[in-house]
Amino acid sequence: MTSVTPDSVSSARPDVLALGPVAWAKKNLFSDWFNSLLTILIVGIFGWGIFRLVLWALTVAQWQVIPNNFGLFMSGTFPSQLYTRIWAILAIICGLAGLSWGVLGRNVSTLFSRNVLIGLGAVCAFIVLFPPTRPNSLQLLPMVALVAGGAAAGRQIGRKFPGVGKWISLSWFLSYFVALWLLGGGLGLTKVSTNDWGGLVLTLFTAVSGIVLCFPLGLLLALGRRSALPVVRLLSTAYIELVRGVPLVAFLFMGQVMIPLFLPIGSRPDRILRAVIALALFSAAYLAENVRAGLQAVPRGQREAAMSLGLNTPTTLGLIILPQALKIAIPAIVGQFISLFQDTTLLSIVGLAELLGIGKSILANPAYLGRYAEVYLFLAVIYWFFCYAMSLASRKIEEKLNTEH
Amino acid sequence: MAHDSGSKTFDLKAMLRDERFWKIAFQVITLIVVLLLLSFFLGNLNRNLIQQGRAFGFSFLRNPAGFSIGESLIQYRPNDPYWRALMVGLGNTLTLVVGGIVLTTLLGVVAGVASFSKNWLLQKLSRLYVGLVQNIPLLLQLFFWYFAIFGALPNPANQIGVLGLAFLNNRGVYIPWASSALLAILGIAATVGAAIAALFLWRWRTKIRIETGVGGQAQSIALAVVALAWLAIITVGMDWTVPEGVEGGGVTGGLRLSREYVASLTALVFYTSAFVAEIVRAGIQSVSKGQWEAARTLGLNAGMVMRLVVFPQALRVIIPPMNSQYMNLTKNSSLAFAIAFPEIYSIATTTYNQTGRPVEVFVVMMATYLTLCLLITVVMNQFNRSVQFKER
What is the CATH number for B326? Predict the structure, then answer.
């Protein structure tokens, strides 16, 4: 038990930071009888709950289901002799991520600050110590090195060629098609049927494809809804409101069943493609609303000034209005992407083996009967990690944009 | 058009430079493209349907459905027509949505206000809840509640009793309930009626007190009478039946809430409340600090500051985004189908599987959800109007 030190008591200036633990607890936990009751109740109920959870996790739970099926969770039934292709995709992503980080942080004094080094160390330690990833340490540790190396290289490149940002964006764009090629094969690689795409790889692929596809459509719909032309406005508004009134499951159902009906007799696109199209058509309506909010926040004078400078409508939109509107809408758009990422779980309902779908089929295996809590907790951690990372990034961007003016 | 009304000859170059021309031309082009796309899609649809021998039409809704439904509010037998099966689904959706909206509002507001608590633990708990629940997909949470929590409850032979009033087992939750459906409806109507009457009386009393500074005793007495009458109806008039455990497992009496319903409701409420908590938090933050300080200076205690000064002002910011959360809850209730709760989406897919009519089923489904969302919007807009600033 620590007591309040005499000098902090006798100190003439009120100093909140120097509050001793007892005084702190008294102020924040036991200020009056109601507060004290709350504290006791919370500590009692949650302490008991956490104790039971830990007890369950250590004694009752059978975690063997996770390492035994780790490959399935990560990449579904993708043929294991072709795993190098998935490693190649991961390597491209890690390299590009490192480069972008380096280029973006080219003006920061120390790229590898203490916190970043601790973070990288923690990731390495996790890879080596976490049982499911330990067998792949040989592949995963170089990935971390790739990120760090990419960052260091990106910083040098970014300093030498200030206009390199455009090329980074372009390479991200191209990497999507390279990843598609590496996944599906063709053009000299063994073909892999989309039925064998699954797990986290499929989740990420559908989420990224949905985002890439919904962005241009959402942008057009937002502009259409704000347009002065009545026909365009009416059509955009009708689309947005109709789609926003229907649940995504119904929309995915339509994608699976009705897209073939809308196409010429006999044509039947791949079911992953159908799912991605439905996902993108759905998200576009929500994205349009977020972009519209951004458009509304741009002062009217901006448009008038651009017009009086002699710009026509497309150039006004492209050079003046949209850059400002998108900047305002970034937090909302990231939020939209987070929910799109979460929405990919619904693809398991229409029969795709994405992360949740593969979890369901593993649970259907008699060897892992009743391991619901273990599998679902593991999946929850994965989803939480990705969504939290995205929302953290969005908060960072927001802060950066706020300090700029 | 303006340029050919003059006596000059038709000038193509001038027309191409004219913004007015382009405005009209662009709309015409858009319309033509959209119409072409629509006719392409609908033409294909028509050809596909004819090829399958199923012309568009809703007469199949009168055919007998032939499937049984686990739970329903209205009478339903397997040889009833499809439209009746869909009504059963709509009823189940409504029980889920109405229960969900009520509980979400309560939990969301409590969690949102808790993030301003003086109690450090409660504050952190509220933040933890929001950060955890918002970042995990709803469907995963639904499976977790259904399989890992409610599925892990003991079987009826070893069921858990709660103070002898309710029972929990892996088939569902059993709670005390009125002995007949009619009495239950009367009880709910009495509760709603009493709440509305109390609200009006309270406002009347406040108005008199503001205008005259004293008085309002008559209204206070009326309030007490309403409360007593409601209490009497609820305690005596409802003819409560309490669930009783049967020797060797099982429960008689009371109301059984199926495991599917309870799990769906819990998942929906926990998920949506996290978003509502964020909205409430943002709303309270939007009230300027001066309002808090002024209210404290007038001698109000912390609870009264929140209830009388801050929260009514925060409502202006809170209500509009709540509308979309309620709509999300309504649409997300369709996920309950993944754990076989027979709500409208689930009945609709069964109907599609049996009749092979995706287009008609989709139209019915879309119309249902659009109507529900529209209803919510209308009610919320009314409510919104009553909390906005009334400027003179």
Answer: 1.10.3720.10
Q: CB-CB: which of B119, B136, B332 is closest to A38?
A: B119
Task: Examine residue B6 and state whether it is found in any structural domain, yes or no.
Answer: no
CA distance A23 to B120: 13
B108, B279 Cβ separation under 8 angstroms: yes
Does residue B326 sit within a domain?
yes
Which pLDDT belongs to residue B137? 94
The percent of residues in chain B predicted with pLDDT above 70, rounded, is 97
Place of tokens 């977020």: A290
Flag if B44 and A31 touch (Cβ within 8 Å).
no
Amino acid at residue number B297: T
What would the pLDDT profile of B34-78 be if each residue is shown by its tens digit? 999 999 988 888 888 888 877 778 888 888 888 888 888 888 888
* Cβ-contact B119, A29 below 8 angstroms: yes
Tokens of B6: 């003059």
Closest Cα of chain B to A107: distance in Å? Answer: 32
Residue B40 lies in a domain: no
Closest Cα partner for A219 from A314, A342, A312, A306? A314
DSSP label at residue B9? P
CA dihedral A81, A82, A83, A89 (to 10 degrees): 170
- Which segments of chain A have a pLDDT < 70? 1-19, 401-405
- What is the C-alpha separation between A288 and A111, in angstroms, rounded? 36
The Cα A125–Cα A134 span in angstroms is 10
Report for A19-33, A380-394, B225-239, B250-264: range of highest mean pLDDT? A380-394
Burial bucket for residue A158 (CB in 10 Å: 0-12, 13-18, 19+):
buried
For residues A398 and A388, give the distance between their C-alpha atoms in angstroms, rounded to a whole number: 15
pLDDT(B140) > 90? yes
**To the nearest whole angstrom, how far is the Cα of A398 from the nearest Cα of chain B?**
16
Tokens, residue B100: 């969900």
B340 Cβ contact partners less than 8 Å away, ≥ 6 residues apart? B70, B260, B346
Of B243, B246, B245, residue with least CA distance to B254: B243
Per-domain boundaries in chain A:
21-60, 79-191, 200-405
Residue A351 · residue A357 · CB < 8 Å: yes
| Cross-chain Cβ contact B47/A263 below 8 Å | no
Domain count, chain B: 1
Q: How far apart are CA B303 and CA B323, in angstroms?
A: 26
Q: Is residue B145 one of the residues assigned to a domain?
A: yes
* A200-405, CATH topology level: MetI-like fold (1.10.3720)
Give the lowest-confidence range in B57-71, B190-204, B283-297.
B57-71
In sequence order, the 6+-apart residues with CB closer than 8 A to the CB of B204 are B216, B219
Residue A172 distance to chain B (closest CA, Å) = 25
d(CA B101, CA A109): 51
